[in-house]
Amino acid sequence: MLTNKKTLHIDIVSAEQEIFSGEVESVIASGEGGELGIMPGHTALLTQLKPGVVRLLKNNGEEDTFFVSGGMLEVQPHLVTVLADTVARAADLDEMAAVEAKERAEKILADKSADINYTLAATELAEAMAQLRIISQMRDKLGIK
Amino acid sequence: MSSSKEIRSKISGIKNTQKITSAMQMVAASKMRRAQDRMYRSRPYAKRIRQVISHIANGHPEYRHAFLEEREIKRVGYIIVSSDRGLCGGLNINLFKKALTSLKAWHNKEVEIDLCLIGVKAEHFFKRIGGKIVANATRLGETPSVVDLIGVVKVMLDAYRNGTIDALFIVANSFVNTMSQVPQVNQLLPIVHAAAEESESGHWDYIYEPDDAKKILDSLLDRYIESQVYQNVIENIACEQASRMVAMKNATDNAGKVIKDLKQAYNKARQAAITQELAEIVAGAAAV
C-alpha cells in the first residue's frame, strides 16, 4: 500500500453518467451514520449516503460540491467511489412505481377485447372469402353460371 | 396527355417521400450518436458496482444472497426491451423472434413465463401472441432515466424474491456497429457469478455503516440490476436509431430508383405524344 501518498482518487458515478473523477485531498459526505470526513489512507469503508452534499477539497485549496440524492460510498485507502442515485429513493416511492408498472400491464390485458374482436372479425372475413373463392372455382369447373 | 400528367404527379409524390426519408435518416444519425454517448457514459457505474458486489460476496461467503443463488426453475421472468416506434427495419421483429425461440424452449420444459414489456412495439406484439404480462413501461422517449425503470424492475425483483419466478432474463438488441445490431438474451438473475477478483492486498473487509453488510448488499444488488436494465434500454435505443438510419437510407435510395424509372416512362410518353402529333400534322398536310 502506498502510505505516503497525499491525495486520494475519487470517482462519482451515477447510473446515467460519470459525474466527477480526479485527485482530491479530502472528501466530506453525509453518510447514514453521520458526517464523514475522508482523508488519504482511510480504512476501507462502505456506507449508504443520505441525500445531501458531497464536498471535495482539492489540492489547490478549491472546493467542489456535488449534490447527491442518496447512494453508496465506498472507501479504500486511496480510492473513493460514490455510487450516486439519480433520484431520492424511498421504499414507498419505489412501491408506488412498481404498482404503476403492474397497473399498466393489467390495462393491456384488460383492453384485449377490442383487439380480439378485430382479429376475430378478420379471420371470419378471411374464411368467408376463401369459401366464396372455392364456390366460384367449382362453378367454373362445372360450367354453371 | 393525361398519362404524362399522372406520371408527373407520381414523381412529385415520390420526391416528397424521399425528402421525408432522407430527413429521417439524418435525424436518426444524430440521435444515434447521442444515444451511443449515453450508452458509454452509463458503463463506469455498472463496472464499479460490480467490483464492490464481488468484493462483498467474496468477503461474506456465509451469507448467500438470493440473487446469487441458483435454484430449481419452475417459472421464469423475461424483460423484453423494444422500441416505441416503427420504421426501423427488422429490428423489433428479429428481437421478438429471438425472444420467442427462447420462450418456446422454456415452454417445452413446462416452465411458466412472466413477461415484462418495455416499449410500445413489444406491448402490441405480445398482446397478440398472448402471455402473462406482469409489468409494462412504454413511451420512455429518447432519453429515459433510471427513474422510469424503477417500477418495472421492482416488480420483477419482488417476484424473484417471493419465489414467484426463479430466473430473470432480459432480451434486447446489442449494438455491434451502425450496420449490425444483434438481439440477445441475457440472464439477469441469478447473477452469473464473475470469477472472484483477487484483491491486491490479500483478505480485507469493509467497515459497514450501518453495520449490516446484508442490507447494503441488498440495496447494491437492486441498483445493479436496475443499472443493467437501464443499460440495455439505452443500448436498444442506440440500435433503434442505427437501424432506422439504415432503413431510411435504403428507402431514400429506392425512392431514387423509382423516380429514375418513372422519369424514363414520362419521357417515353412525352416522346410518343410528340411523334403522334407530328404524324397527324404530316397526314393532314398530305390530305391537303
Task: Give the key terms.
heterodimer, A: 145 residues, 7-stranded mixed β-sheet, 7 strands, B: 288 residues, 5-stranded mixed β-sheet
Structure, explained:
The complex is a heterodimer of chains A (145) and B (288). Chain A folds into two domains: 8-90, F0F1 ATP synthase delta/epsilon subunit, N-terminal (ATP Synthase, domain 1), CATH 2.60.15; 93-142, ATP synthase delta/epsilon subunit, C-terminal domain (Single alpha-helices involved in coiled-coils or other helix-helix interfaces), CATH 1.20.5. Chain A is 35% helix and 40% strand. Chain A contains two helices and seven strands, in the order βββββββαα. Chain A has helices spanning 91-110, 112-142; strands at 8-14, 18-24, 26-31, 34-38, 45-57, 63-76, 79-84. Chain A has a seven-stranded mixed beta sheet, with no helix packed on it. The mean pLDDT of chain A is 82. With 288 residues, chain B is an alpha/beta fold. Chain B is built from six helices and six strands, in the order H-H-E-H-E-H-E-H-E-E-E-H. Chain B has helices spanning 2-41, 43-59, 91-108, 120-129, 146-162, 213-287, and strands at residues 75-81, 112-118, 132-137, 167-177, 180-189, 207-209. In chain B, strands 3-2-1-4-5 form a five-stranded mixed beta sheet, with helices on both faces. In chain B, helix 1 runs antiparallel to helix 6 (213-287). The longest helix of chain B has 75 residues, at 213-287. Chain B is elongated and about 115 Å long. Chains A and B meet through strand 1, strand 5, strand 6, helix 1 and helix 2 of A and helix 2, helix 4, strand 3, helix 5 and strand 6 of B.
Within the largest sheet of chain B, what's the order of strands?
Answer: 3-2-1-4-5
Distance between the termini of chain B: 27 Å
> Which sequence of SSEs, written as H and E, runs from N to C of chain B?
HHEHEHEHEEEH
- The number of E-state strands of chain A comes to 7
Our count of domains of chain A comes out at 2
CATH domain topology of the largest domain in chain A: ATP Synthase, domain 1
At the first level of CATH, the class of the largest domain in chain A is Mainly Beta
- Helix fraction of chain B? 55-70%
Low-confidence stretches of chain A: none
Outline type of chain A: rod-shaped
